[in-house]
Amino acid sequence: MSSAKPLRLFRTTAFKLAAGYLVVFGLFAAGLVGYLVFETSSVLVRDADRRLTLEARRLGQHYQRGGINGLYAAMEDSAVRAGNRLYALSTPGGDVLVSNIGRLPEGVWSEPGLARFGYDQIGPGGSLRESRAIVRVFELPEGFRVIIGLDIGQADTIRGAVRRAAMVSLVTLIALGLLGWLYVNRRVLRRLDGISATTGRIIDGRLSERIAIMGTGDEFDRLGEQLNVMLDRLERSMDRLKEVSDNIAHDLRTPLTRMRNTMEDALRQPPNNDVDRQALEKSLEEADRLMATFQALLTIARVEAGGRRHTLEATELGSVITDVMELYEPVAEDAGVALTADLPKEPVRAIVNRELVGLALANLIDNALKYGASEGSEIKLALSSSRHAAMLSVSDHGPGIPLADRERVRDRFVRLDKSRTAEGSGLGLALVDAVAAFHDGTLELADAEPGLMVRISLPLGHDKAGATQERGDD
Prior knowledge:
The protein is an alpha+beta fold. It folds into three domains: 1-209, Beta-Lactamase, CATH 3.30.450.20; 219-297, Helix Hairpins (Orthogonal Bundle); 306-459, Heat Shock Protein 90, CATH 3.30.565. The chain has helices spanning 4-11, 13-80, 153-203, 219-268, 273-304, 317-334, 354-371, 428-438, 469-473, and strands at residues 85-90, 96-99, 113-122, 128-139, 145-151, 313-316, 338-342, 349-352, 378-385, 389-395, 442-447, 452-459. A five-stranded antiparallel β-sheet has the order 2-1-5-4-3. A five-stranded mixed β-sheet has the order 7-9-10-12-11.
């Protein structure tokens, strides 16, 4: 593991990015160093050439006024007060008449023009020291030769210092880049190793594990927060799936067992048309319940898949309530329950699927009749609207649903009757919740004081329908 870890460092994205940045910045720094050195040299040469041109012009004026003698006098005077300027005058035969240069390299006198070379400079007490110069060599008509130059030894020193400083900066940049890469790479690998270890434990079945959040607010924290949200949902989904599987097994086993027992009892008895008919009727009822359960599951799946978007249209919700009430009034009357409605004077229209809204209301009324109604009680349907939404509600006078269970009962096959002996499959509120979500609405469970009130909120304008309120008014 210890030998593999360094190799892994070089395969990481952080290393590749750091190496790429180092190469880019290294090339940039090297180019900058070269440019600085080149530009420094160019500036020095241009300045020296300008100064040499001006000095040659001044000495040329002395030559024009006084000939070679005038030039000699001017150069001798200048050589005494030279500073970093260099002067030399030689005869046609090569004898040096004036010079403050010291020992010149061979061949300098024979090549007129601009030249740069190393030479021995005359120091204090006649001592010589190595230096560099840039000069112009002129040949006069009588054969005399003139050298005018500048000592650039100090400039070379400055240029060397610039070069050394640039190289040190380049090396420092590379070193700092490597240290930064090591720090970042180790930090990134540590965080990624933590995430990888956590996901490994989750894969092993420990679904309660979560990504560690350091509180720095960096991209790893943001990624961890999103992953944790996803893991929370996955864990809830797995728990619900397990619960749904258990409930399905229980709910389907009960009617199937009843059907089998009824048929066995009928087979044990001598042939009897009445008994056989009752057995078949009971089996048919259980089969109908099974079919209703599967139909509810299929409807929920189709609604959650959003497969009915094309059926959305402007619908007057009061008429939907009226139609559903007409369907359930005989059932409510037989149960001794009053079925009433509180509808507004003005029609309330929304872009909905009429069939699904009616199905949701029917499930709510059916639940109210099963669990929230007794003889002489009332089930009340109501419709109201706000600026943006329409609210449909069904209220009863039953025991209601405890606050702690109001989120749980939205799930499939959840029944508060733990013995699961009462009629029903636990899919009613799950279907209503799916219908509300299909319309981008909400489902709310509240106290009716006494009883339970279930409210569905539906947006008045639904963009997914591609319709408008005016279309519904036509």
